[in-house]
Amino acid sequence: MSKNIMINDHAVGVLESDIIFKIAAMAREATQKFGSDNVYNASIGALTGDDGNLLINNVYYEVLKGMPNVLFADYAPMPGEPEFLNASIKACFKDVEVEGYKEAVAVMGGTAAIKHVFWNYADDNDEVLVTDWNWAPYNQIAYENKRVLKTFNMFTPDNTFDTGSMIAAIEELFKKQRSVVIILNFPAHNPTGYTPSEKEAREIYDEVEKLADKHKDKRIVLLFDVAYIDLSKDNARDFMKAYKPLPNNVLSLFSYSLSKTATAYGLRTASLISLSSSAEIALEAKAAVTFSTRGTYTGCVRAAQLAFAKVYNDEEIRAKFEAERAKHIQLVLSRADAFLTEAKKVGLKHSPYQSGFFISIPCDASMAITEALYEKKTFVAPMPKGLRLAICSLAEWKCAKLPAILKDYVK
Ligand SMILES: Cc1ncc(COP(=O)(O)O)c(C=O)c1O
To answer: Model-level pTM greater than 0.70?
Structure first.
């Protein structure tokens, strides 16, 4: 008898967890059976201590919990709390002066920022561009919003950003679309750890400017998904330093999320910042996303926004908050160092990692290799172009042993 299906054609209706969560569940089972020291779980992308517990910036939570109940209970203003929005712009750009008009709007995490950008800046069935190494949920967000994700080559053979491939992909889409949205997830790109240099970023802006001038009737939306900006090295904002005012048919949007910045993953709070040479276009982004907010979830979590504003605006608290975060950054970097040093010794090729939660290993047949690694009690995430290693959740000594294990499997 055929299954009685009530959902419509485009609804997916699958309760099963995705492949990475399945692998993580296997890793947890193996840990219970064989003990933590014998299992290499590099599958889940959360920053944890060596004991596997989530690392938390307690300074943020002390401020949050000190807030009166009414600030948890009450609705926030639809575009977000002004104090939060101002603080988010300052925190996102820090000491980098970018020229242009800026506006911000609160959204429920970086995921919502991406959803709202897809919805407001692409049309139904439009293709949205992203690098071929990417964060898998972009695809799901696109599908859920009737957009289609299209990839372009991310790295040249010498591991620099392939601007030519990005520009060619935009031009190709201009043949059939009025607007093209491009997601640029850096610094500390997930899953490669790539961060562009000022020179690479300058090339991107120069080429985008030329393209925009050539196609004055078209629109280019650069969505900078800066999810890891505050968990990166000092060069995180080099790509902002290279920024220059772009023509009015280019809009830059920055998705600044508190998930990693304040270890506030579950509080679903982010700011979508627009940057344009036109005040009107920057403000239009805020208006459009505020409307979308009303049409999806009605405002964001008020206390989470206000706690961030308080942390940011109080110098003493901010210093403590940043000191806590600096320890987390250092932990990830020492794990990455341990991995990269050994990878070099055994000759294991990897992505051009600079900072961030992940290092990737380019290879074919990533699913088959992922499955073969189970026999070594090693759990990684398969990606279309290779293996993603979540060094953010692996003790330093395990990071040092991982390259030798992988080398036997990745040819
Ligand atoms: C590259 C990237 N973008 C966006 C997000 C979304 O995070 P959130 O919605 O929690 O802000 C993540 C989370 O892991 C991510 O890795």
So the answer is: yes
